[in-house]
Design goal:
The protein has about 290 residues and is α/β, with parallel strands linked by helices. The chain is about 30% helix and about 25% strand. A 10-stranded mixed beta sheet has the order 5-4-1-2-10-9-3-8-7-6, with helices on both faces.
Length: about 290
């Protein structure tokens, strides 16, 4: 069900612009393939301020997922560094949670929704009552309190992704990484999940870094968008998103500034991918920007 626009959370303004939670500095990743080195990421440097929601976009194959895996400690960079809250990331850090695109593969079919959400909490030293409180809170926040005893295979794709988000939130991360989390759901469900992210980001006071191929999504959700170049990747441009803090799927996307930002990002990515840039007045071309 679509969210009431009046209930969509205000994007919180970071309390201190200098309060950097994450710093990626000179990140490079090279793979060995068929006897030769393939440079996926050449030189990525950017910061994430505590309280921000930042989206990463770029041409196909620009290393967005490789970047996220390096940030999460799941992949060791060839050179450069990732620092979370002042500590170098050498492996999956305690203060970080990840929501993957393939939600069906990240949930255990033989466990109930409650058991799936509680699972990562069992490795922590907390009482059962505290685990129960966190699970209940996170399921309530994503609208699944009534489905706690269901199994993932009994739920729709959108509901399964809500379970994955609830599990990440119950973990109480400082930083929530999301790797194209809505790519596998229909358009209406995607819009509902985007609004869900805005609400829970505010409710749980969590910093979010979200990788997406959808330009409209990046503009709608973000405080800032980082545009990657074609591979091997560098940061092509960083854009502040000066839209009103209260976001709505209809009103926000009708704003002239939204259309301007979408067109700007679209042109950057098309230029990087070597495709012809559409004319500024060609509305039929620009209409496809959100599907890139």
């Amino acid at each position: 069900m679509a969210a009431d626009p009046a209930t969509i959370a205000m994007n919180p303004t970071p309390s201190n612009p200098r309060d950097v939670l994450l710093r990626v500095d000179g990140l490079k990743k090279t793979y060995s393939a068929q006897g030769r080195d393939v440079e996926a990421v050449r030189d990525l440097t950017f910061e994430l301020v505590r309280g921000e929601l930042t989206c990463i976009v770029g041409p196909s194959g620009s290393g967005k997922t490789t970047l996220l895996r390096c940030i999460s400690g799941l992949l060791e960079p060839t050179s450069g560094s990732v620092v979370l809250d002042g500590a170098p990331v050498k492996g999956p850090p305690r203060g970080m949670a990840v929501v993957f695109q393939e939600y069906g593969r990240s949930l255990f079919a033989w466990m109930t929704v409650r058991q799936n959400v509680e699972l990562p909490l069992k490795v922590q030293k907390m009482s059962k009552s505290e685990r129960t409180r966190l699970v209940d809170q996170s399921l309530e926040s994503v609208g699944l309190a009534h489905s706690a005893d269901s199994y993932p295979w009994q739920l729709s794709g959108g509901m399964q992704q809500r379970v994955a988000i609830a599990r990440a939130l119950a973990y109480q991360p400082q930083l929530l990484l999301m790797d194209e989390p809505f790519a596998s759901v229909d358009a209406q469900t995607r819009a509902d999940l985007e609004d869900l992210v805005l609400r829970v980001r505010h409710q749980f006071d969590v910093t979010v870094l979200l990788v997406t191929h959808d330009i409209d999504e990046s503009i709608y959700l973000s405080d800032r968008v980082v545009v990657l170049s074609s591979p091997p990747s560098t940061v092509r441009e960083e854009l502040e998103i000066p839209l009103p803090r209260r976001r709505d799927q209809v009103t926000t996307k009708e704003l002239p500034e939204f259309a301007h930002l979408r067109a700007h990002v679209f042109r950057l990515i098309k230029r990087e991918s070597g495709a012809e840039t559409p004319d500024a007045h060609d509305s039929s071309s620009l209409a496809t920007a959100g599907e890139l």
